[in-house]
Write a structure and sequence with these properties.
Oligomer: single chain
Distance between the termini: 8 Å
Organism: Sporobacter termitidis DSM 10068
Keywords: Cell membrane, Membrane, Transmembrane, Transmembrane helix
Largest sheet: 2 strands, antiparallel
Helix content: 55-70%
Strand content: 5-15%
Membrane topology: Multi-pass membrane protein
Strand order of the largest sheet: 1-6
Structural class: mainly alpha
Subcellular location: Cell membrane
Main location: membrane
Number of helices: 13
């Protein structure tokens, strides 16, 4: 007699499926939900520290926006962060994972500092500032050219290459700080001298002109990536190198050109940092902006205008975190965790915008006859 056995073939409990399309309203609804959840999770952390979440969040906002001094401090954070994010956008659009923005910023800062420290007496202020800008752009472009050339010529891993270049340029600045460029008046603590007034950027509305420059760069980068032939080439190479070669594009040229532009903008950011707010050079001048800018670029979808909003939000968080450390005696590490939690939810929501989870709803049953 033949018996029949029933075998349950269970589907996975959950599957990840890429969305074909999602409405703008739904996408922003997911982002809003992520922000609310991040504030709720952050509120639990604040409660665990023994403070009122509403009071802490209030002081974060007022401490970064309520006064002119606070606004200027917030703007000084936002300027290099937005500039660095703009520099990353074309590289990431091409799927060239440029993790060397920190080093490119530092290279630009180093080049600008040379003229600020040693040539300020030989040029008028406008000429000196223009030369500093030009030097920083060239230096950042060169620091971007190196990994781009190796990638285009031999297909090296750009992630590791650009990351290692960060440490090389930081080591160079450390050597200069402790040796040739050490300020004799600094005594036993090696540091580089402060810039002369002629090498400091002029201000508009109390903030250095860097804010005008980065906003102009945002507009230009949007036009460049969206409407120019080179922007189209960047998008095609990012989608498929094989397709780019098939239709006759010079892929190595596109790679080198794009990363040189990316590095040049990052180099300019270095000049804005040392000449616009720090007024000196150190091995920490890049301030982590190059790494944070990766988050800004991804959250903004590589759209320069969206990156402006994200940058302002992060600048408010950063300045507000400094405020609550003072007002509530919250440790710096706890403030960093709070910012990290908020960013975690904001980055995580992008996953749910691009993908959706399908949960198992029924069992598939297969009837197998046995002899």
């Amino acid at each position: 007699m033949n018996e029949t056995s029933i075998r349950d073939r269970k589907e996975p409990f959950a599957r990840i499926v890429k969305r074909d399309d999602i409405s703008r309203v739904k996408a922003w609804g997911i982002r809003l939900a992520a922000i609310l959840l991040s504030l709720l999770a952050g509120g639990l952390l604040i409660l665990a520290l023994g403070h009122n979440p509403f009071a802490v969040y209030r002081d974060m906002v007022t401490g970064s926006l309520a006064t002119k001094t606070a606004l200027i401090a917030t703007a000084k954070i936002a300027i290099p962060l937005l500039g660095a994010a703009i520099s990353i956008a074309p590289a990431f659009k091409m799927k060239f994972w440029n993790i060397g923005t920190e080093g490119q910023i530092m290279a630009g800062a180093l080049a600008a500092s040379y003229f600020a420290l040693f040539q300020h007496g030989n040029m008028s202020r406008p000429v000196l500032i223009l030369v500093m800008f030009a030097a920083s752009v060239v230096a950042g472009g060169i620091w971007g050219f190196i990994p781009a050339f190796f990638k285009a010529k031999w297909g090296t891993n750009e992630t590791l290459f650009t990351l290692m270049l960060n440490y090389i340029i930081i080591g160079i600045v450390k050597y200069l700080r402790m040796g040739p460029w050490k300020n004799p008046a600094s005594g036993g603590f090696p540091k580089i001298a402060m810039f002369d007034d002629a090498a400091r950027l002029p201000s508009v509305f109390g903030v250095n002109i860097g804010w005008i420059i980065v906003l102009a760069l945002a507009v230009l980068m949007f036009i460049y990536m969206r409407y120019s032939k080179q922007g189209y080439e960047i998008a095609v190479v990012g989608e498929s190198v094989r397709t780019s070669k098939y239709i006759g594009m010079n892929v190595p040229k596109v790679i080198i050109r794009t990363i040189v532009i990316s590095g040049a903008i990052a180099g300019l950011v270095g000049c804005l940092i040392v000449a616009g707010s720090a007024y000196t050079l150190s091995d920490t001048s890049s301030g982590g902006y190059g790494f944070t800018a990766i988050t800004v670029a991804w959250l903004g979808g590589l759209n320069p205008f969206a990156m402006i909003i994200i940058t302002v939000f992060l600048a408010v968080l950063t300045k507000g975190a400094n405020t609550i450390q003072t007002n509530f005696k919250i440790p710096a590490s706890a403030s960093d965790v709070l910012i990290g939690m908020i960013l975690f939810f904001m980055l995580g929501c992008e996953f749910f915008i691009k993908y959706r989870l399908i949960f198992r709803t029924r069992r598939r049953i297969e009837v197998v006859p046995n002899d």
